[in-house]
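User: I'm curious whether this sequence folds into something compact or stays loose and floppy. Could you predict its structure so I can see for myself?
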Amino acid sequence: MTTLNPLHLLAAEQKSAEVTDWSARVSWVLGLVVFIAFVYWLMRQGWKWRGSLQSGLPELATTPAGFTDGETLLTLTGRYHASTTAGQWLDRIVAHGLGTRSRVELTLTAEGLDVVRPGAADFFVPAAALREARLDKALAGKVLPEGGLLVITWDHGGTLIDSGFRSDRAAEHQAWVDAVDHLTGTAGKNLTGTAGNNLTSTKEGTAR
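Assistant: Here's the prediction. I'll summarize afterward.
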């Protein structure tokens, strides 16, 4: 005759109790689903509200004909993180698809900056609209390691915009800062990110 040892007896005694109150459990799950849907709806409404506030922002420029005929200064593949009002790292711009994160391919020539975003709206920044570039670590609530973001400042319809990019090879960021600043005539300034101490008025980010 087989005798159960104490461990077998303990396991037999600790069987899970059967769930009998299914209505309470289903109600709890449905309540959670409704809450999540409500939060999502609030986020969408906030996004639409922000977009309506930014409705005065002009349409984005498109790549001019013959752009690829010029000499390419730099190219980059990576991610587009966001755009904000310059110097306001939390003031996200969502108009014209600028709030959509995506993959990105950047091309810089003497004519300007071409921003190609698979799955999102492409846009072009003429050289005359470029203002400066810097290394930073945060934009639109996204925080990365120090210098993990390439932030390019540009003028669009009288609004200065900070657009944040992250290369697949972060070591390329400094070359982009140098190239953009050379193109805009701001090369040689002591330019750091929002955590820097010696910033010009156009380079200064919001203290965090």
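Summary: The CA atoms of residues 32 and 38 lie 10 Å apart. The beta strands are 72-85, 102-109, 112-116, 123-126, 130-136, 138-139, 142-143, 149-156, 159-167.
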